[in-house]
Amino acid sequence: MRDKIFSPSELERHYDLAPSPALAAEMADLYAKMDRVVSPPDWAIHAPYVAAINKLKKERNAVILAHNYMTPDIYHGIADFVGDSLQLAIKATEVEADVIVQCGVHFMAETSKILNPSKTVLIPDMEAGCSLAESITAEGVAKMRAQYPGAPVVTYVNTTAEVKAASDICCTSSNAAQIVAAMESDTVIMTPDKYLAQNIAKQVPQKRIVWWDGACIVHERYTAKDIADYREWNPDTRIIAHPECPPDVVAEADFSGSTSGILDYVHREKPAKAMLVTECSMASNIADELPEVDFVGPCNMCPYMKKITLEKVLWSLHTMSGAVEVEAEVAGKARVAVQRMIDLSRDLGL
Ligand code: 13P
Ligand code: SF4
Fold it and tell me: Residue 327: how many CB atoms within 10 A of its CB?
């Protein structure tokens, strides 16, 4: 059956979605987690959606898995589990509810479906893509294999199921160095993020790493000069960069890690000033937990992640639209590559 076309007016017929200061006040406990970054009038707009989604979630026996790049209203208001790509993939294997709503991008929903195929996996906006996932196809992987015969293909999870299916093992930013180091071959092919590959090559010098020419449109915007200038103007700022940034940007940073690695670092270190060189919502999501930290720097948003909104989550759960399907043979092969990553990460104690 085809999905119904998104209709805000249909939602309004079924739910009372008018801004409600009264409901906002009733849900003050949730608001306390984001009141440093969400204004009271905005919370009065969000509160009816948050209430409706949390009620509907129970009726549908659904759980919401949300990436660290979601906005605070989603991250704190409706998510059952938040995390980085590896944590979300592992969590997807453990879900017992009937429905998973993936608040993130399409490849994340596909990964959940691949790992837990009996569940209905919904993505609230099918257009929530990723520049890395769009940069390579299974033919691209075959081309790399032909160029470097015998070299294993380590593929970032930010890819389609077809690309995962054509790969030997997956990785995320939190386990890429260890996964690459564990490969038996001297040469390792990494797809599709050239910057992640170049950053990992520095950490694993014993391997010859060759890469596909893909990049994340959010992280490639940062330059080493911007970071160096920022440090000169604000010498006491702790600079923390995601490894999807170019290597000269990572070299300017005090720490680099996956999104959850970054959150853990800031929680642990509590610097007076921090610049998170990654997607903008990360700082907003922990601003209330860490009032002692002043988050500074530019706000680069991922246009794909930002397609996921409370309104679309409600629509998706209301109509059960946005179900992600992966063809069985592709899913089977992709599952092997993703499961290998999960098993190896566990064996390595990651
Ligand atoms: P991680 O959460 O695994 O660090 O990934 C970042 C990212 O860009 C996801 O799209
Ligand atoms: Fe893809 Fe970059 Fe957006 Fe992550 S932040 S979904 S890697 S475009």
Answer: 11
Closest C-alpha among 93, 71, 96 to residue 339: 93
- Average of per-residue pLDDT across 233-262: 97
- Considering only CA atoms, which residue is closest to atom 7 of ligand 2? 216
What are the binding residues for [4Fe-4S] cluster?
130, 216, 302
Provide the whole-model pTM. 0.97
Q: What φ, ψ does residue 326 adopt, rounded to 5°? A: -130, 130
**Average confidence (pLDDT) over 290-314:** 96
Domains (ranges, CATH) in the chain? 8-130+305-319 (3.40.50.10800), 133-216+327-347 (3.40.50.10800), 224-295 (3.40.50.10800)
Beta strands in 76-142 (DSSP E): 81-83, 99-103, 120-122
Alpha-carbon distances of 40 from 24, 258, 309, 310, rounded to whole Å: 8, 32, 18, 17
CA of 8 to the centre of ligand 1 (A): 30
